[in-house]
Each structure stands twice: as C-alpha cells, then as structure tokens.
Amino acid sequence: MWPQFAEQADKEGWPAARFLAAITEHELAERDRRRIERHLAEARLLPGKTLDTFAFEAVPMISKAQVMAITAGDSWLEKGANLLLFGPPGGGKSHLASAIGLALIENGWRVLFTRTTDLVQKLQTARRDLALENALAKLDKFHLLILDDLAYVTKDQAETSVLFELISARYERRSMLITANQPFGEWGKVFPDPAMTLAAVDRLVHHATIFEMNVESYRRREAMERKRGPGRPASYATSANSVAD
Ligand code: ADP
Ligand code: MG
Questions:
Q1: Which of 56, 95, 235 has most ligand 1 atoms within 8 Å of its beta carbon, as the pocket-test mutant?
Q2: In terms of CB atoms within 10 Å, which of 17, 76, 93, 238 comes out highest?
Q3: What is the pLDDT at residue 30?
Q4: Nearest protein CA to atom 25 of ligand 1, as residue
Q5: What pTM was estimated for this model as a whole?
Q6: β-strand 144-148 against 82-86: which pairing, if any?
Q7: CA–CA separation, 91 vs 58, rounded Å?
C-alpha cells in the first residue's frame, strides 16, 4: 500500500512522521482484520446465528444486558469460568451459544464451537493413539470451547473418560460453554461412573453462570403464530417488539 500513501503524502505535503503513522496504522488495522477472519474460520460457528437475530423477548428469563456483558469476555474468560445453557430442544441454546461465540471473536477472543459427540470422538481417537494429552493441550489456544448438546454423548462414548479429562484439564484455566437439554439429571449417562459425573459437575459449576432457557420451542411457536394468522400478538411477546417482524 505504501506507494498510494506516498503519492497522497507528496500531494498533500505530509511531514515524514505523518506518512509513517498513516502506513503503520493501516498495517495494524489490516492485521487485526485478518486475525479476526482467521479466528472466525477456525471457530466453526453456526452460520447466520447472531445476537442481532436472537429474539431476547422470547426468553424473558435471560437478560440481554447480561449477555452483552458476557460478550466482552474479560470478566470470565480470564479466570476460566463457564457458561451453562439448559433448556428443552428448540429453545435457542445453540443459537445463543454460537452468537456469543461470534461476539467474543469480534472482541478479540478465540473460540471453538463443536458438537460434544464430535469432540468426544476426536479425543477418543487421540487417546487410542496415546495422544490425548497433546490433543487437550491443542484446545488450550481457544479461550472458549463451546460444547453443544452435552447429553447427546452416546453410550459407547460415555464408557471412556475423555470428556472428564477435558473438563479437568480446563478447570480454572480455560472456559467452556455447555448446552444441554437437562440440567445435570441426565449427565450420569455421559460419564463412566457416578463419582466421575459428580466430580465433573462440581468442576463445571464452581465458577459458572447458568441460564435456564425453559421456553417452548421457538420453531413450534413460530409455526403456531403463522397458523393463527397475522394480527394476533405473539403469545410469548413480553415487550413491544414482536419476534415475527
Ligand atoms: P436448541 O439448541 O435449544 O435446540 P436452537 O438454537 O437450535 O435451539 O433453535 C432452533 C431454531 O430456532 C434455530 O433456527 C434458532 O435460530 C431459532 N431460535 C430459537 N430461539 C430463538 C430466538 N430467541 N430468537 C431467534 N431465533 C431463535
Ligand atoms: Mg441445539
């Protein structure tokens, strides 16, 4: 870019210091942009799920201001605290998780979004190859690991302890955002034995914010609204903004 800047500098008679500052600022901004682009590519977020498209009025138990504070990151990612999202299917857990991930990346953090079963499968393979420790260490570069649908870990996957190893390895160092249909009740099926389940839950909740999204399926509500036709208020709309707009 420097010839363009030089031409402008010559034309407008910039002092040398101003010319240097201008090209340096440009380079720094460009590096920031490329870094965020790289972080977005590695994060595997759900496409199109943003906080802008998330209807907070559909989940009145969640404060938008609190979510916005969470997207700054510093208050929790620096100490490896966790975020747990619970609620029935269709309630917006994956959407909200991915959207929080996106906002954190835009604020300079590194995030990985993965279905829990996919990651468990990868870690199991690594363990078989005696490379589990290495695989866990590689995940350290992510300030936040989003594990979507924890309770969907299958029976044969639950017979290994890789998920527990992951939780232990990140405890008080690196954050996790976990979504699940059931708060803890079903987790006995996810870990090899009750003692390990207890130990995993204990570590996860020690420093955690918990959102219980006990709302009806967003898709189903939308379908019901469509069926009922226009002009009727959305049943869940607790504020002036209707989700349907
Ligand atoms: P969950 O992960 O809890 O099963 P999802 O996040 O997959 O639910 O949500 C199901 C669908 O409904 C997705 O397409 C999602 O974008 C949409 N959705 C859910 N809740 C909301 C919301 N509050 N605002 C906008 N879209 C939503
Ligand atoms: Mg989901």
A1: 95
A2: 93
A3: 95
A4: 54
A5: 0.88
A6: unpaired
A7: 9
Q: How far, rounded to the nearest angstrom, does the alpha carbon of residue 56 sit from its chain's CA centroid?
A: 17
Q: Are 19 and 6 in contact (CB under 8 A)?
A: yes
Angle at 167 between CA 211 and CA 47, to 5 degrees: 55
**Rounded distance between C-alpha atoms, residue 55 and residue 62, angstroms:** 11
Q: How far is CA 214 from CA 41, 176, 208, 209, in A?
A: 32, 21, 18, 16
Give the tens place of pLDDT for each residue, 19-68. Answer: 999 999 999 999 999 999 999 999 999 999 999 999 999 999 999 999 99
DSSP 8-state assignment for residue 233 = P
Answer for the pair 180, 84: CB distance below 8 angstroms, yes or no.
yes
Q: Report the distance separating Cα 64 and Cα 103, nearest Å.
A: 13
Q: Which atom of ligand 1 is nearest to the CA of 87?
A: 3
Q: State the amino acid at position 214 in one-letter form.
A: N
> How far is Cα 112 from Cα 90, in angstroms, rounded to an integer?
22
Cα of 44 vs centre of ligand 1, distance in Å, is 17
Q: Which residues pair with 146 in a beta bridge?
A: 113, 177
Query: What pLDDT shows up at residue 159?
Result: 87
103: CA distance to ligand 1 center in Å? 17
Question: In this predicted structure, what is the pLDDT of residue 230?
Answer: 62
Helix (H) and strand (E) counts for the chain?
11, 5
